[in-house]
Structures are given as structure tokens and as C-alpha cells.
Amino acid sequence: MNRVKKILRTIRDDSQLMFGCIGICIMLLMIVLAPVITRWPGDYYGPDSLAAPGVNGHILGTNHMGQDVWSMVVYGIRTSLKVAVVSACISGLIGIVVGGVAGYFGGIVDRIVSEIINVFMMLPTLFLVLLVVSLFGNSIFHVMVVIGLTTWPSNAKLMRAQALSLRQRTFVISARTMGETKLQILFRYIIPNGIFPVISNTTMRMAGAILTEASLSFLGLGDPTVVSWGQMVYDGKAYMTQGWWVCVFAGLAIVLTVLVFYMMGDGINHVLNPKYAKGGKK
Amino acid sequence: MLKYVLKKLAFAVFTVLLVMTLNFTLIHLAPGSPVDIIIGPDNQDPALRAALMETYGLDKPVIVQFFRYIGQLLHGNMGSSIVFHTPVAEMIGSKFAATFMLVFTAAVLALIIGAAMGITAGRKEGGFLDKVFSYTSYTFNAMPSFWLALMLIILFATTLRWLPSSGMVTPRAKFTGFRYTLDVLYHMVLPLLTLLLLRIPGYFRTTKSSVLQVNSEDYITTLRATGMSEKKIFRKYVLKNAILPVVTSFGMSMAFLIAGVSLIEIVFAWPGTGRVMLTAINQRDYPVLMGVYLIMSIMVALTMIVVDIVYAILDPRIRY
Asked: Rounded mean pLDDT of chain B?
């Protein structure tokens, strides 16, 4: 009980973290309550095409196919969150393992991994994602995996720096003297103690993943079988002069979601990063 | 210094090679082939297919094709488009100038404006300007580039009718000389504005946090204790040290810009490499695709080298 109170107080004390948490809770609620708060399913093609906001009960209007924009926005949360969480987790896991191994083992392994990270950091990853998705097929699964596979280097860099400093600490050295194997030390001491910057970076990456997915959908390379905000903007672009609302509201949904993840990431960073810890800040 | 530059250059060549290998493998492993596009969906004659495959060297193993391509490149030949039969260099050349103009102007302007905003905000942390800049940059940072571009079109082109929504020149106007330059600049405003709004937040954040960090260093505190004027401390000591990370982020930003600009080019129908690339992807036009990627990665690599050298010159603490 005390623990819960402590967590709640931490969330309340940091405004960014609080807004982030509230935002994510609202989104989760909207996912669960989607059938209740919308009158039409996201993939329902109704009789009113390009109806202005407010007409016939369409709060945010309809697109050229008669789909209700509000319903699509609500159902689009599912796609965005799925992409965000899955790709960021892939990126986080690879980053943690690669960075941890490089930083802890050091020597030649570290040199090779660091160079690979540098090369990847230099690469315009959007091109790579574009290439893979357009050539190998555009299912949402591909999109998520490719985003995950191209964004791990920043996580690896953070984890490597952590591992480099942690391996000199007394508790790691004593574990080594106790005869624990390298892998044991890596997974039991280095990673759990050095994971915090990766967590906040991963939250930021979720925002990046949402933007990347939206960009792909906007280029017509998204998964056509799911409701996606990027796709909505892409479809709405052709009808921009007759119906601005399709583009505008879909884009606003993206902006708000990305902002929520940014605030969450910044908040987590403030709470977990000792540099910002209480007392040091003021 | 020379050794340092050479080392950087070697790393850049290695990176470009690695990127090319990666792209080549990906492109050639992917299902679909340019021959499908040339033949079209109605003709299924296997003899024709085999003949076409042979003409373009696509029947050889990927590894042979790769070395052939590299050999070609070493002769300064990027090959010809399989679909259009025009040399790749020609296809990309003219488009590249348009992209480069946009990207470079945006990168430099964003650096200057972003750094200026960051310095202003960093000097008076928590002040009114700091708050305004911080909140706006936070919001713009969260915007998808293509959406921001569309919103600017809705605002400035369709509603206010101040600026053209697409293209690089007024069609059918046939301006020459100074008029032509003005016309291009006029068309460039909106794409440039989009890129600036997207890139300034990055520089702003880097500059601000760097100014704040340097401000809290011990040597600055010491200078303050000596009673030196706040202005002089800032101009002589804080600024010089705070600008270093911003220079590094210029290189990074260039990579993002080069990739991100293709989306904006598509929204504004800007005749750059982005559109060439998308068409090439859809048509599986391997030589064009490889050419575009080659130019992009060389450009990123060169920017990185220049940035590293500038950094080394600016910061005497860097040993090379």
C-alpha cells in the first residue's frame, strides 16, 4: 500500500509524467470503450460521404467513402499503440543485449559493436524501412518489426555507456570474485542496474515509431487492412479542398498521441535519472 | 590533423560500402523484379522473360551482380534505368540539385534560428521566452512532417492564397534570369517553412540544454566569483563551449533531413530525388534505386566528415 502511494506521489510531483500517464490511461480507456463511444465501427462505409463535422451525428464528419472520422480516430488508437509498443520493445530488447554485451565484455567485441552502432546512427533509417516495407510487403507485422530492427542503435549506445561504468563498481567486481559467470553478471547486475535510460529512450522511441508508421501509411505503404491515422491523412489529401476535416483530425490524433509519449518519456527520465533527482534539480 | 581526416574518410568509405551492400542485398532478395514491370501482367512467355533477365544481367547470382555493380561504379558509371533506359546519373542529377537546394538551405537556417532561440532561452531559464519556445518546439516536434506540410498548404495556399501549393516553377510562365530565381524562391517558401518548423526544435533543445550545462560548470562559477560581467562571461566562455554539441547535431540532422525531405517533396510536388526514389521502388528499378541510395549515403557521410573536422578545429581538447 505504501508503495502504491509512493508511486502515485512521484507521478503527481512531475507534471510531465502526470500528463503522460493520464494521456495513456485515456487512450487505453478509449480502446476498451471504443464500441460505446462511437456510433459506427471504424470500417463501416455509411451513406454520407464527405459530410461536414456535426452532420447526421458524425461528430468529426466523414471521409469520401462515408466512414465516420471520429470512429476511425478511435479505432486508429489500437493500430498506433500496437505499432508503438511492439516496435519499441524489439528495439529496446536488442539495444539492451547488444549494448550490455559490448559495454561489459569490452575489447574487440566493444570496438566492433560500437562501429556498427555508429554506422547505423548515420544511416537514414526511414529509407531502410521504406525499402523493406515496399519490397517485402506492407503488413502491419512487417512495419513493426522493421521499425524495431532499425531503431535499436540508440538504445545500444545508452546501454553500452551504462555497462562501461557499472562494470567498475564494487558490487560487480565482488560478484566476479565470487565466481559468477560473465553471463550471470551481465543479466543479474549490469542490465537490471543500467536499464533506466533505455526505458525512457524506449518510451520516446514509441513516439518515433508512431510517426514512422504514419509516414509509411502516408506514402501508401501502410497496411490497408487496418485503420491507421497516416492512411486517413493519405486518403484525405485528395479531398482536402472539399473536406479538410479528414486530414486535420487524423493528424491531430497523431500529434496528441506522440505528445503523450514524449511527456511520458521525459517524465520517466526525470524520475529515474539521478541527475534530475530531487534536490539536485533546484 | 591529416591523419585524423584520413581516418574519418576511411570510416566514411567503409560506411558507404556497408550501406550499399545492405541495400543491394535487400533490393535483390526482395520478391518481384523489374522484368515483371517491363513484360507487364498479360505476357507470360518464359523465353522473353529469360532473354530480358539475361540482357540486364539479372540471371547471374546476386554476388556476381554486386561485384559487377561495384566495378561499374569504380568506372564512374551508375548504370541505366531498366524501365526508362536513361542513364541513372542523368535521371538523378537534375533532381538532386532541387533536393540539395531545399535540404541545405533548411539545414543552415534551422541551425541558425534554432541555436539563436536556444541561447536566448538558455540565458534566462524559466523566463517568458523560454516557456514559449519550449512549448512550441515540443508541439512541433510531435508533428508528422507530411501533415504539417498539408496544414500549411490549407492555411497559406488554399485559404489565404498567398503562396503556391506545389511545384518548383509556375507552369507555362517560362520565366528566365532573375524572374526565374524569384519564382523558384516563391515556390520554395512553403516546403522550406515545413522543414524549418520540423528541424528547429531539435537545435533549440540541444542548444538550450548545452547552454544550461556549461552555465553550471565550475569554471563559469569561478569566473562569476571573480566579478566578471555576466555579458562577458557569456560571450567569451559559455557560448564557445555551448555551441560544440550543436555542431555535432548538425550532422545528425542532415541525415534525418535527407531522408525526411522525400515525404515533403511528395506533398509539395517538389521535383527532387524523393519522387524518383518512390517510383523506382514501385517499379523495382534496381539501378535507379541503388543510385539514389548511393548519392544519399555519400552526402550523409560527407556531412559527417565536415562536421567532425569543424568540431576538431573548434574544440582544441579533441586529440587526433
From this structure: 82
ipTM of the complex model: 0.82
Query: Under CATH, what is the fold of the domain A2-44+54-277?
Result: MetI-like fold (1.10.3720)
Element (DSSP H or E) covering residue B157: none
**CB-CB under 8 Å, A134 with B15:** no
**Separation of alpha carbons A111 and B256, rounded Å:** 25
Query: What's the gap between Cα A281 and its chain centre?
Result: 27
- What SS3 state is found at B315? coil
- Domain ranges in chain B are 96-271
Q: Which of A83, A112, A122 is the best mutation test for B, with the most CBs of B within 10 A? A: A122
| Least confident window among A52-56, A104-108, A157-161, A207-211 | A52-56
Residue B81 phi/psi, 5-degree rounding, is -65, 135
pTM for the predicted model, two decimal places: 0.83
Segment A37-73, tens digit of pLDDT: 887 777 777 777 777 777 777 777 777 777 888 888 8
Q: What is the pLDDT of residues B152-179, one digit of tens each?
A: 888 888 878 888 877 777 777 677 778 7
Give the confidence band of A282 by pLDDT, cuts at 50, 70, 90: very low
CATH code 3.40.50.2300 for B96-271: no
Q: What is the DSSP string of chain A?
A: -HHHHHHHHHHHH-HHHHHHHHHHHHHHHHHHTHHHH-SS-TT---S--SPPTTGGG-TT-B-TT--BHHHHHHHHHHHHHHHHHHHHHHHHHHHHHHHHHHHHH-HHHHHHHHHHHHHHHHS-HHHHHHHHHHHH---HHHHHHHHHHHHHHHHHHHHHHHHHHHTTSHHHHHHHHTT--HHHHIIIIIHHHH-HHHHHHHHHHHHHHHHHHHHHHHTT-S-TTS--HHHHHHHHHTTTTT-HHHHHHHHHHHHHHHHHHHHHHHHHHHHH-GGGSTTT--
The residue among B17, B139, B146, B295 with the most chain A CBs within 10 A of its CB, best to mutate, is B146
Placement of cell 539501378 in the chain: B287
Domain boundaries, chain A: 2-44+54-277
- CA distance to partner chain B, nearest, from residue A221 (Å): 10
DSSP character at residue B155: I
